[in-house]
# Entry
Amino acid sequence: MLVSAGAVSTLVCVGGLLRRVWLTGPIRHTVGGWSSPLGIELYADGLSTALLAVTAVIMGTAGFYVVDAIRHKNGHTEGYDSDFFWPLWFFLWTTFNAVFLSRDVFNLYITLELLVLCAVPLLILAGSGAALIAGMRYLLVAMLGSMCYLLGVALLYAQYDTLSIPQLGALMVSSPGTAAAVVLMTLGLLLKTALFPLHFWLPSAHGNAPAAVSALLSGLVVKASFYLLVRLWFGAFAGIVSVGAGNFLGLLGSLAIIWGSLLALRQQRLKLVIAYSTVAQIGYFFLLFPLVIGGTQLCAPSDRVDWLTMAGSGAMYFMLSHALAKAAMFLAAGCIAHAAASDRLNEVIGIGRYLPVSVFAFALAGVSLMGLPPSGGFVGKWMMLKAAFATNQWWWAMVISLGGLLAAAYVFMVLKQTVVFRLVDIRFYEVPRGMQWAALLLALFSLLLGVSGQVPLDLLAVGSPFSPRAGQGWLP
Amino acid sequence: MTLHDWLPLLTLLTSLVTGLLIFFLAEQQVRLRTFLNMAGAIIKLALVAVMLWGTFHGQSYETRLPLLGQTDLVLRADALAMLFVGLSSLLWFLTTIYAIGYLEKSPHRSRFFGFFSICVTATVGIALAGNLLTFFVFYELLTLSTYPLVVHRGTPEALRAGGRYLVYTLSGAALLLLGVVWLYVLAGPIEFTAGGVLSHLEEESHRAALIAIFVLLVGGLGVKAAFVPLHGWLPSAMVAPAPVSALLHAVAVVKAGAFGIVRVVYDIYGIKLTESLGVTGPLAAVAAFSIIYGSLRALMQDDLKRRLAYSTVSQLSYITLGVAIVGPLSTVGGVVHLVHQGIMKITLFFCAGNLAETVGIHRISEMDGVAKRMPWTMTAFTIAAFGMIGLPPVAGFISKWYLGLGALQAGQGWGVGVLLMSTLLNAGYFLPILYAAWFKEPHAAWNEKGLKDWWESDWRLLLPTLATAVLSLTAGLLAGLPISPVGWVRMIVKQDYKLWTPFLGIP
# Structure
């Protein structure tokens, strides 16, 4: 009861905010009337509102999945029935909202820290030894990342006396101290976002958490730190980051796509396949940096604005649809694991016959990951490809295409197992319908993003951080 | 918007909605499923008939929905589109009857018919697509919806074939996507227009890019159109149930590729630009090689369906050859072969499925004397095989006639040589089958399954087969009429060459 009330009221608030941003443009709110640099400032533009909305959809649907799992508990509930579950769940939701609405670097540090402090206990609720180890490792890595980030923040504050991202953007100049701060903050965030080769902690954490929690970890938590990177690189650091740095991030992203996909192909467990797929898909997001920053130099000035905004919106679009698709995939995997009492690929052979809805949800989410039409992933990929050709950086287009094919390989590796015809009938456990439909609902949402492409794109364009007016420096 | 604007979309929805509804049916609801299938197919046929009538009288139908920025989802019923739509909806109707009989009592029928309908939706979408993005959307949908049909039986062999199918088609689609995106960046939002739409680009400065894009587009489409050496998926996909093989090979998948090439050459690049870029020569060479190689491989197969599959590899490239030899007559021959090859090949696959289902024959070496047991099936097979060889008056003769004339008109006599050699090879792999079936003595007595008064097998397997055989015959006999496939194609070709003709006089 209380759970539904909390979820519904948050959904309503996000809906209201969405409407206002859509109609009137970015909103700024100074908490308690204290404006920055003294007070805390909340800020919502198209990008943050879109992320808030996707968060609300995923938290709401996954919450429904959990409610249904608790109601029909038969033996294995993956820790959903713990007394700590719902408080942590809502704390996590609050923290997401705080991340996407903050815009000073210290506030963001706090929210990121809170995110980890809610996510790790939720992960450990799974109760297995593997989950405990994975959770501890995740905690330590995240702490290390936070420390790096905090060190960078301190260096910036010492030099510029402000923590607000827009003010930093106006003040920052190249200096050794600034460079050190940029490197430290970026490194810390890369560690939390699990960009190759700093992804080592992710698969075990995402693969061992309860399914609904994995959905949040893969779908949303890694996006939060990436979101911050975007805000910093195209806000505060816009004047000082170089094309080379952008290309370096793009290179790491490309390696992530290839390495993550190849490892996904070698996994024996369904949830680990999905977790490595996250490693690969994170790589796509980082192609944003070379496409936009490199694009400023390689593209004709007349149509620069269009193409750079397109690259930015494309990557963000990809991120949003990945969030929905990945969450759907983990929920579907949860249903499958529930039915087979295991998520080993050789124990779910032929399960499609018993769980058509879940397998279908998995397949639809897979379509989005592969970037095939009609899905949100396709729209994002289409725009990134266009931007790559338009800014004469066709090599990133090759990486994007190759990544799509590799994604198809691991998605179909899983789907193949589910359609195998089995002579011996094995009884699977019954899976509550609500759980199955929750997964399908999220998959349909990721498909919907592809069908109604223009509406979210218009939303993302509201106060877009990629339009050259927002960043001061990265246009020569 | 008026009803006219919605007709193309409605045509798509008839099969899409049918497919989605069927997914939710239980396995035992046979009657409801059959009703839905037939209702969908009949309504689609009716809508298509209306649009065919309108298109013939100069009416155009277009649905336009916003998709992405300046690029819309465009479904437009022009003459070329209607050629393919007419073919697929008619053959969908017949194949559905066939499939209901063929799959009786086998498992997973809801899944099968659901994906089957979506597959048809994708094919019709490809046909009606008014721009490259729309085309690509349905092209990928087709890949995804045929995979479950190829692996339908769930055997290790089927899964291997399915995997192979995906590797080929998804890689091809990735190339295609790169080409499409590059073209959009270069030329802006462009739509299919008879005569080409790239005339505003300066040829000199964009020459290299235009050639590269052409290679990406045609290379990507060539996978589905089964160019040698991109054809590897096709023979192995033969493990699918017979109605799927029939639909895959006659209409949906392979035709999607060939149709795409026709669109790219005539409605994007325009025949003049294609020729001056110098890409027609290599394309013709690839097509000629595929024609000969496919026929040679077909000679060596003993499995009936595999022989038919290699025959498809060969016959499909007739279409490409007609496109690649510049000139209105060869274009007529190539484009009309889209339809002619479709109805003839589906007849052959229907026969193969009927033989396998009724008397358990899968190999050519088992076919001795089968015509005595199944005279009607073998009559249909004989008509279609004659058509494939190119004997008058079956439809295949018309295609070859125009192709040959076109090659001579364009001064490319080697094309005639390729056609003659292919004809000999076709005869080489079809005539022994006919001889064995009609004149040899059977090894043992045939079973009596489905044998009743009139019918030599289940009527649902026999009637569609006879219907397509009759179609192949009439398409050839009535070639002089303006509403015959070839008459229709002549109308299209006049549009394609209206801006530029290499020779005086249009047929």
In short: The radius of gyration of chain B is 22 Å. Chain B is about 70% helix and 5% strand.
